[in-house]
Amino acid sequence: MPVKKIKKVKKRLLLKLEQEGYINSVVEVEVKHISTNSVAIKFLVNKGKEVIIRKINYNGAKQLDIDDFEDVMINKQKESFSWWFGRNDGVIDFEQLEYDKFRIKQLYLENGFLDIRVKNLFSIVDFNTNSANINISIYEGAQYKINNIIVHIDNNITKTDKIYKHLKLKK
Predict the structure, then answer these.
(1) Which residues, including other chains, have CB under 8 Å from residue 38's CB and lie 6 or more apart?
(2) H-type helices in 20-119, by residue range?
(3) How far apart are CA 37 and CA 35, in angstroms?
(4) What is the pLDDT of residue 163?
(5) In Å, how far are 147, 164, 166 from 170, measured between CA atoms?
(6) Of 15, 86, 90, 162, whose CB has the highest number of CB atoms within 10 Å?
(7) pLDDT per residue over 129-144, tens digit each?
(8) Could you tell me the pTM of the whole model?
(9) Is 40 helix (H, G, I), strand (E, B) or coil?
(10) CATH for 52-139?
(11) Using CA atoms, how far apart are residues 99 and 70, in angstroms rounded to an integer?
């Protein structure tokens, strides 16, 4: 295996470990020549420690509760008694950070905030304690509500009263 390919695999391993929350990981490569046409390659991986989310700041969020965000986000701050079943251990998933931004936006859209902008989702990592704070800047905008619903349909097809019964929109 050429040296270039080995370096590429090593880089991918480090990136994957980082995405899974393991910072300061080390990957070493041992190459042993077996014969003229073959080599044995051993990747020695030393996982770094996981980064734990200590605090998530939702800057600009006034209309929704923190519990609403935690219901949709993958990354959540560590809860007390995190070893207990159902409690959050707070391990950061760097790969999901960008998707959490879209999950927050979708949550606001579902609640009538059509002007929502989620900006500057970033993490501040303290490598001494392997902990992180995540800051999310949110511009909520106005909440839009439905004032009235009118359905126009030919009565030969169905009665409008039947349609109104099945509508799940609230005024």
Answers:
(1) none
(2) 66-72, 94-110
(3) 5
(4) 83
(5) 9, 11, 11
(6) 90
(7) 888 899 999 999 999 9
(8) 0.68
(9) strand
(10) 3.10.20.310
(11) 13
